[in-house]
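Reopening this one. Same input as before:
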Amino acid sequence: MSSTDTRRPARPWGAFIGVLFLIALVAVWAAQGTLSGTGLPVGRAATIAVGMTLQAIPFLLLGVFVAELIEAFVSPALIARVFPTNPLASVATALIVAFLLPVCDCSAVPIFRSLLRKGVPLSAATTLMLASPAINPLVIASTYYAFGSWSLVATRIGLSAIVALSVGLSMLVASPRALRADSAFHDGDACGCAGGCAVPDRSFSGVLGATGQSFGRILPYLLGGVAASTLAQVLWPVSSLLAGLPAPAALALMMGAGFALSLCSSSDAVIARSLASLAPTGALMGFMVYGPMMDVKNVALLASQFRGAFVVRLFVTVSVAAATVIGCAWWAGVLS
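Same output, byte for byte:
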């Protein structure tokens, strides 16, 4: 570190806060028998929060680790060979990669950030981030397990791919700046800065250290999303609101449920199956297509890494695209 570098060493405050939060959750969960006598849904809320956190953390850790591997070992030249310069071909390539990448939305956000920093076009990176939690082999298997219907699986995958492609291509129009200013630095392999650029530590311990720092920085945002989602699940009984709703309202409600419940895409089909007797297929598709792309945890993670204007545009675009694509398919009888 040079004498003019005044940056302070990173401190793992995020990880420390996260550990305290988890300890508090487990303590409340363990005491739920005592708390049940108070008449408050504290025990249920703690159970939901503990389950969601333990489900999300491994995927988030995996995503951060993969992102740091990309940061350390994948050069911009290699990225350029994988993703063509043609925008349409680049987006199509992203969709193929997404199909082969078995990750949840918690994992997709750090990978998205790392790809952008390596120079992948925003349209392609956005397509990859949105599609990978929605069309990967784990989702295909879990959806078939829940519903036992290959036609429904194909419909979910097809609608998810169309929505992801639509949103990705929309980023070609008035392309926004996504990365924050302090995140937009170049990799050392291709840097021509006069003062030099930070070259990532390519040792195993260096990658693990970077993973730990990034994970600790992102973890509080994940936990904030878990808290908001838990509150929504405790106070918002989705099943009791579905009865007698017209199609547009049912679709909107189930998309809202997918956003609020923040389920992992590898398990959301099981929850959707439990609502199949109450909600039509079109509404269930709103839950299973929109939820993996945009939920409370996802928005919290995006807000920790990207510009607010980009997060707002992404949220609005995904919401409009999902409602339009699913609504049109429902109206055309594809989802009957």
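So the earlier flakiness isn't reproducible anymore. For the record, Residues 134 and 212 are 27 Å apart (CA to CA).
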